[in-house]
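FW: tagging you since you asked about this chain on Friday. Here's the raw sequence from the shared folder, copied in full. Didn't touch anything.
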Amino acid sequence: MADVFRSFGRPKVAGMLALGFSSGLPFFLTAATLGYWLRDEGATLTAIGFISWVGLAYSFKFLWSPVIDRVDAPVAGGRLGRRRGWMLLAQILVGSGLLAMALIRPAGGLVPLGIAALVVAFASATQDIVVDAWRIEAADDAEELGLLTSAYQLGYRIAIITSDALILFAANHLGWPISYGLMAALMTIGVVATFKVKEPARADEVLHAKSDEAPLWSPRGFFDAVVGPFISFFKTWGWMGLLMLVFISLYRLPEFMMGPMATPLYHDLGISKDMVGAVRGTAGLAGSFLGIAAGGLLVARVGQMRGLIIGGLLQAAAIGSFAILALYGGDPRLFGAVMMFDNFGVSVAGVALITYMSSLTTLGYTATQYAVLSSTYAIVGKTLKGFSGVIVEGLQTHGYTLMESYAIFFVGAGAIGLPAILLCFWLSAAQRRRLLAQNSLPAA
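HL: got it, structure written out here
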C-alpha cells in the first residue's frame, strides 16, 4: 500500500486509480444500493432478489469481448485507440443509464427501471473488459502489474464506498433520484482518465496485426477471436484449465449471495441511512484499505495459492459475521466491527483472485481471456443470488422470525465458499505435481 501511495505521481498508476473508480462506481448502483432504494419504496425481498439479475450482464461479458479485442470502438476508436475508444463509449453509456434510472424511479415501474439498470450493467461490464485488458497490457513487468492491480483495487473500493455508503447521505437529505444523478456525474472521472492515459502500444500492435491479417468478419478471424483464446488457454494449462475455471466460479460465491440481502437487513434493523453511510465511509473504508494492503502482502509473501486459501477463509468468516448483526441488533459499535471485518475479508480475497486470474492471460487475447475468467467467477454467483430473497422469506414461512431468517441465510452464504477452498488445496497440489514433472524433463 505504501508503494501504491508513493507511485500516485506516476501518470500510469494515477490513471489506473481513476479507471478503477470508474469501473467500481456502477456495480452497486444496479445491485445492493438499488435494493436499498427499492426497499425504501416498499418492494418485496423477492422482487429485490429478482431485479438483481440485471447483474448477469457481468457474467456474460465474454460473449462480446472478442469484438473489443478485434474491432475499434465506433467514432472514438480510431483517434483514441482500441482500448481507450471502448472505455469512453462504455463510460458515456453508464452515465446515461444512471441518469435514466434517476428520471424513471421505482414509481415509473420496475420494468422500465430494470431496463435502465440493465443498460448500466451491460455498459459497466464492457468497461470492465477493456479496463482489465488495459491494466494487464499497460504493465511493463510483473511488479508493475501488481502495482496497477493494487491501484485498481483501491480505486474500485473507493467507488464502492461512494456508491454503497456516501450515496446514502445524499439519498437521506436530497432523495434517491438526485443521488443517482450525482453518481452519473461522477463517471466524468473515468472519462478524464481515459483521455489522460496512454494506449498500450505493444498490445495495440499485436491486436491490429491480428485484425489486419484476419479481420473479425472473415472465417479465420472469427475463429481466432472466439476460439483462439480458449485454445491458447488450454494449450498452456491442459486439463488443469477446467479445474481452474470451476475453482474461479465458486470462489466469490459467498459475496454474491449475501449482496442483495445486506442493505435490506440494515433497513429492517432500523439503522438510519446516515448511520450506514457513516460506518461504511469510516470503518468500511478502513477495512478495505487494510484488506487491499494485506492481500497484496499476503500474495507476495506466501504465494498465489496460499493467498487464495487464506483470503477465502477470511471472506467466508466475514460474510457469516452478518448473522451476529441480525441476531444482536444494530448497535453502532457492532455494526462498525462487522462492516470493517467484511470489507477487510472481501478485499483480501479480491486482490488474491484478481492477481491469480491476471497471471493466466496471454497477450493478444487479454480482453477475451480475462473476460472469460471474470465471467466464470460471476456467472454462478449472479445466477444464485437472485434467489436470496426467496431463501430469507422461505425461512420465515417455516416459523423463523425475520432476523433469525437473515442470520441463517448469512451463515449459509459464508459456508457456501468452503468447497472452493478445498478445491484450491487440490489445485495447488496439482500445480506442484505439474511443475515437478516439467522440471524433471531432460533438457532439449
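FW: The longest helix spans residues 142-174.
HL: agreed, and The CA atoms of residues 31 and 52 lie 6 Å apart.
FW: great, closing this out.
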